[in-house]
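Note to self: the last two entries modelled the partners one at a time, which told us nothing about the interface. This time every component goes in together.
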Amino acid sequence: MMSANTDFTLAVEELTVSFDGFKAVDNLNFYLDKNELHVVIGPNGAGKTTVLDLICGKTKSTSGSIKFMNKELTKLSEHEIVRAGVGRKFQTPSIYENLTVFENLEVSYPRGRGVFGSLMFKRDAEVENKILEIAKEIMLDHMLETEAALLSHGQKQWLEIGMLLIQDPQLLMLDEPVAGMSVKEREQTAELLNKISAGRSVLVIEHDMEFVAQIAHKVTVLHQGKILASGDMDTVQKDPKVIEVYLGH
Amino acid sequence: MSFMYEKLLGGKNGTVGFVLLATLILVVFPLALDGFRLNLVAKYLTYAFPAISLVLLWGYGGTLSLGQGIFFGLGGYGMAMFLKLEASSPENTAIQSTPGIPDFMDWNQLTALPWFWEPFNSFTFTLLAILIIPSVFAYLIGVAMFKRRVGGVYFAIITQVVSLILTVLIVGQQGYTGGINGITDLRTLHGWDITSDFAKNLFYFITCFLLLAVILMSRFILTSKFGRLLLAMRDKEDRVRFSGYDVANFKIFIFCFSAMISAIGGAMFTLSVGFMSPSFVGIVPSIEMVIFAAVGGRLSLIGAVYGCLLINFGKTAFSESFPELWLFLMGGLFIAVVMFFPNGLAGLWEDHSHHIKKRLGFITSLFSKNDTAAVAPKLEGSN
Ligand SMILES: Nc1ncnc2c1ncn2[C@@H]1O[C@H](COP(=O)(O)OP(=O)(O)O)[C@@H](O)[C@H]1O
Ligand SMILES: [Mg+2]
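The predicted structure of the combined assembly is written out below.
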């Protein structure tokens, strides 16, 4: 892929992945600016999760390019992509149930990532302060010693977001972050996302239109692996193609 | 000091358990048991090394190896090769058609020492080989498996197969390995009689000290961030990978470490028992090691030691009278533990330690008038 350097945080070009001939993502072009909070919506099976899988290296693309700050990601392994500055939250909360909130954040702290580094890792003041700072941000600072298994579903979602934030990624990708949350928790999460999108790019996958309206700078509608429409919330909502897909479903 | 306390001993619970175990094996057993029984315990304790290795690898890491016998065997054979060469001096073997080589080689018409036996003339090389060869072997298996993301049942089966292949090789290559009988008739180490009572006692204490050292090293690993990562990987491997860790490297390291400590156990086995044979390498011993760890509690380093002692005392007691029954009994015990006490002896201890402590207090108060209060608390479970 020969495209020149750009100012985009993320530049996805002609990205395709096919599973046994079925194109889950089909010739996708997609750009993300710094400080942009971009939401991808679309019906079930549209390929939203697969796009995140491709960006973070979980699934290998069939063709196309993914450039993150002008660095080609398709050739890197998962941990190299993370170390380059890409964080990803999974659709079902993925935290370490048998560790405490503190330990969950500590394990995610971006130091001592090698075998010997982790053996020699010291929990110094810098680490503790950072963990406390993040815990406050995700509203779990009063539960640091709680075993993660005991958190509510919403708190687990926050914890996983915190585990990404502690690595200070330039690109943060969240797959359905408010699934299973109460109305109040949704509001708090919207606030959190608005806060953390400063200084980085955030890519969110979401179904809940009300929530999307609260956070999105830009919306992309994905349908059968292709982009149906893209732009600000109002434009997208008025787009006849979008209305058809959503009503036809 | 606080480093010692927190990192090596694992805080209060860990320290209590460690001190109890140390007292039991360093003081109570030597005082209570005769030389023959003490030597028997030495043998049991050498199995505790691979059992502890499984606590790390399986209990914490979530990777079950059904082939720890491979590494126990490699360590044991390394030591046996050195001792066998010393026992096969030209004077000792003058009646052979080729004097100066081990007797089983002579019986198998070998006329020169095979090249890979040569370096085992050196004790320094042997000690290094005991530590390094199993680790390198584990590294090769680990890279081949973990880098390809092979794990779980597949890993268990593959390690099982490797241990089977190794046994078949050893048995088949009689001239080079001593075959099914193993390497026997070991006598001296640097001219010093290893079959004397004094030597056996000494090996017992060396085994104890090495075992305690291995527990401390393992504790260090478990209390570090590495230890928390092991638990994290067991729970959500993908989350660890997508937090920037190269998961395979962590598994490879813990597998190599587990191989190395198993090998130390194997080497001490050879010294304590005086021979090494393929029956300590293959499928059955490898599975027994898993049972020791499971019965002790697979999240408890110290529990693994008690698991070993308990089952082996049982085995010795039962298999003298009902050898066939023992296998069924052990199988039944294993199933019972997995189904009803998934945390093994350590879990039982944790659940009932208050009762036991109270009762122990009662018993000691009964005996305190006489001065025979040698009550050995049995189990401990933390880490
Ligand atoms: N690894 C895979 N192998 C085969 N098919 C897949 C794989 N991952 C996703 N798919 C298919 O791709 C389509 C898109 O899935 P997904 O990205 O999960 O959709 P969603 O937009 O709901 O997140 C679905 O039809 C799904 O079955
Ligand atoms: Mg999805």
